[in-house]
Amino acid sequence: MSTSRLRWVIPAAVVPVLVLLAYGFRTDPREIPSPLLGRPAAAFSLTTFAGTPVSLEGLRGKVVMLNFWASWCVPACYEEAPALERTWRAYKDKGVMVVGVDIQDKEEAARQFLARFGHSFPNAPDPTGRVSVDYGVYGVPETFFIDRTGRVRFKQVGALTDEIARSHLDVLLKEPS
Questions:
Q1: Is the CB of residue 119 less than 8 Å from the CB of residue 100?
Q2: How many domains does the chain contain in total?
Q3: Using CA atoms, how far apart are residues 133 and 115, in angstroms rounded to an integer?
Q4: pLDDT digits (tens, 9 = 90+) for 37-85
Q5: Deepest in the core among 62, 104, 144, 159, taking most CB within 10 A?
Q6: What angle do helix axes 107-117 and 76-91 make, rounded to 10 degrees?
């Protein structure tokens, strides 16, 4: 290849890479719409760390806040953990069920995480990864808000705050059963 052609090949190859990087840096992953919104939530049946079964079908008629997390998810899962417990305590008597799904984790580390934050709502490992795949989870934490009829209504990518949980749950609780 001649020197003059080589001089243009390298810059020409770099331009698409720079365009792709520019697009990636401008895109907020929290803004990516979920194809699940407005659709029926994927059925699941898991066994909690306490040994009790939990299933979406068993929660029908309740508003469900389904949170995917992992003990290795630092700092976001650690930041949201207290908000999850506060939300559970504030809403459990109002027809809301908070369910945690631990993904791609070691059982001992997950149990230590739950103990550290005093989570009293149901938490279950997803040992096969099936539930996280069915919900299209591509990172933790992610939280899905499911209405009383079993439809996914909201999705939060990243750490959940008290304000985000409250705003979504209050909307869903105002809807007729």
A1: yes
A2: 1
A3: 26
A4: 999 999 999 999 999 999 999 999 999 999 999 999 999 999 999 999 9
A5: 144
A6: 60
State the alpha helices, DSSP H only, in the chain. 3-26, 76-91, 107-117, 130-134, 162-174
The predicted structure's pLDDT at residue 36 = 82
Pairing of strands 63-69, 53-55: unpaired
Q: List the single range of 17-26, 42-51, 129-138, 163-172 with lowest mean pLDDT.
A: 17-26
Domain ranges, residue 129: 32-174
Average pLDDT over residues 118-127: 98
CATH number assigned to the domain comprising residue 45: 3.40.30.10
Percent composition of the chain: helix, strand, coil (DSSP 3-state, to 5): 45, 20, 35
